[in-house]
Amino acid sequence: MDEVMKWVHSTRDYFNELKLEMRRVTWPNRKQVEGTTVVVIVSVFAFAGYFAVVDSLLSKGVKGVLQFFTK
Fold it and tell me: Would you give the DSSP letter of residue 40?
């Protein structure tokens, strides 16, 4: 029974500390969220394009090497 009470107290303490910490959080405003969202979307497309080019070049290189050695 003592272990159960320890668990109850520690769980209650955890949630009280969690509430306290959430009050200290500074949330971004809508403009900040929109700005960072645009940066993330542009970055994803830029990296996708970069990896598509690199993949294409490596694929052509590997095919060329394989054709060279299979002739």
Answer: H
